[in-house]
Design a protein that fits this description.
With 150 residues, the protein is an all-alpha fold. The chain is 79% helix and 0% strand. The protein is built from five helices and no strands. Helix 1 runs antiparallel to helix 2, helix 3 (92-108) packs antiparallel against helix 4 and helix 4 packs antiparallel against helix 5. The longest helix has 41 residues, at 34-74. It is elongated. Keywords: Membrane, Transmembrane, Transmembrane helix. The chain crosses the membrane at residues 7-29, 35-55. It comes from Streptomyces kasugaensis.
């Protein structure tokens, strides 16, 4: 719950920032010189890129949450079997072992979104965020549309 509150607070701050940046872009355009109009247009593009990114990130998180709740209802969420250091960090060798198991499960059932979800969690635990995101995107696509071509 704390993560959701933090996310929405940061998203609200970003939207306020985009509005402020957009207003500065409009002010530059209103100056009317070639240079200020060019800068104003460039400044106006940034909030649109930011809003697009925020929208896609929010949709990704929402869909991943739906999959997590569905998998939890089925009793299929991955069990935390990772060893931890005395400081609470995940042991790298332990994360690699669990990852190998999840990867084998995914190779055995590449069309099942559940295995891709669990693989995404294993990537995340192994601190490989880009691959975790791609695996979760695959899980979402399989869940929403059925089989996905590689």
């Amino acid at each position: 719950m704390r993560a959701k509150i933090t996310y929405f607070v940061l998203a609200a701050v970003l939207v306020v920032y985009f509005v402020l940046v957009g207003s500065r872009g409009v002010m530059l355009i209103e100056q009317g010189t070639v240079l200020t109009v060019a800068f104003g247009v460039a400044v106006l593009i940034l909030p649109f890129i930011g809003l697009w990114f925020l929208w896609h990130t929010t949709q990704f998180a929402r869909k991943a949450g739906i999959l997590a709740r569905e998998l939890e209802a089925e009793g299929g969420l991955p069990v935390d079997e990772l060893r931890r250091t005395p400081g609470g960090r995940i042991d790298r060798d332990s994360a690699d072992e669990v990852f190998a198991k999840r990867q084998a499960e995914t190779e055995d059932a590449p069309g099942d979104w559940r295995t891709w979800f669990r693989l995404a969690v294993a990537y995340h635990d192994a601190r490989d965020t880009p691959r975790a995101r791609k695996a979760m995107q695959r899980a979402i696509a399989l869940h929403d549309n059925g089989p996905v071509r590689t």
